[in-house]
Amino acid sequence: MGHEALRRRIRIWLVVFIVGLVLSGLTAFPLVTEIRWLDEALRSDGSPVPGHLPGLVDWVGRVREGLEATDTKYPFVLYGTDWLAFAHLVIAIAFYGPYRDPVRNIWVIEFGMIACAAIVPLALICGPIRGIPFYWQLIDMSFGFFGVIPLLIVRRMIKRLEAYELAA
Prior knowledge:
The chain is mainly alpha-helical. The protein has helices spanning 3-26, 31-43, 49-52, 54-73, 79-94, 96-100, 106-130, 134-167. 84% of the residues lie in helices and 0% in strands. α2 (31-43) runs antiparallel to α4 and α7 packs antiparallel against α8. The chain is elongated and about 60 Å long.
C-alpha cells in the first residue's frame, strides 16, 4: 500500500471514530426524551423484548422514572450530562490532530486507547456503587472494547506511515 493510500485509510478510520464520538456526545443531550422513546418501544405491543428480557424492560423503566423525576424536580442535575456530551465533542475535536498529521499526533490515538481501557475499571467500580446492573456495565464496557478497535488499527497504520516517511 502506498504512502498516500495509507494516509487516506488512516483518515477514513479517524472519521469513523470521530463520528462515533460526536453521535455519542449528541445523544447525551436529550436523555429524557430518548429514554422515554426506548421505554415505549420496549413496552409496545409488537415488542418481543418483555417476554425475553424482562429485567432489561424493568431497568429501562426505572431509568425513565428516575430521569423524568429528576428533570421535573431537579433539572439542574441533568446539566452534568450536558457536560458529558460536551466532553465527547471536545475529545472528537482532538482527533483532528491525527487526521491532519498522524505521525506527529499519534499520542492522541494512544490517549484514546488509554481512555477506552479506563472504561472497564470505571464501570466495574462505579457501576455497583450506583446500583447499575452488571449486564448494563457490560454494555458500558463495550464502548471501550469497540472504541479501541479502530484506534488499534489506526495506530498500526500510523506506525507503517512513519516507517514510510523515515525511509523517504
